Amino acid sequence: MRPSGRKLDQMRAVSFERGFSKHAEGSCLVRFGDTHVLCTASLEERVPPWLRNGGKGWVTAEYGMLPRATGDRMRREASAGKQGGRTQEIQRLIGRSLRAVVDLEALGERQITIDCDVIQADGGTRTAGITGAWVALHDCLKWMEARSMVKVDRVLKDHVAAVSCGIFAGQSVLDLDYLEDSAAETDSNFVMTGSGGIVEIQGTAEGVPFSQEQFLELMLLARSGISGLVQMQKDTIA
Prior knowledge:
Blueprint: E1 14-18, E2 26-32, E3 35-44, E4 58-65, H1 77-80, H2 85-99, H3 104-107, E5 111-120, H4 125-145, H5 152-155, E6 160-168, E7 171-174, H6 178-181, E8 186-193, E9 198-205, H7 212-237
Helix pairs in contact: 2-4, 4-7
Subunit structure: Homohexameric ring arranged as a trimer of dimers.
EC number: 2.7.7.56
Family: Belongs to the RNase PH family.
């Protein structure tokens, strides 16, 4: 039995709230159960120096957790003077995931930055961030399309979403919350496109190594979960 009472293949309650931020070109508050992440997309009419005059744009991401996103207050990374390794790893993952479904030439020499700020954390913040970031990116591109800057269907090639899976109490489960994540025997994150392409898989045995058969079980769970998330993205932007 899972601590939440969910079935092995059952996601937490998921929701997307578009237009959450008044000023951003695109924004979405995504909720995976008690994990809440605010994703905002900001457009700049410039690209990093190493991309200038190359005819391509860029999509990047930044990630952070508010001090009381967790049970105890965390020190702001800004006050520490540097980002932690976990923060850097997650924001790079979010950026890679979004660029996998973006035609950078069709975007033109512009940069879109997605900020994923965790308001409340209960496991799966990176997967929620990726899934909500896609909605914020889509709405930013719609904002641009309304101003005759781009065509959304030329820039955005596919959906992308992510979900965690793991082995908890000897069973393969979908969408781990914190209680499961902190005690999981195996913890993994899957990032996939709407058409089923694999963008990235992160998997770690926390104790006993997992088998190929167990990995395939996790993969099937992830495909099912991501298929549902992509459908929710489609319903949200319809």
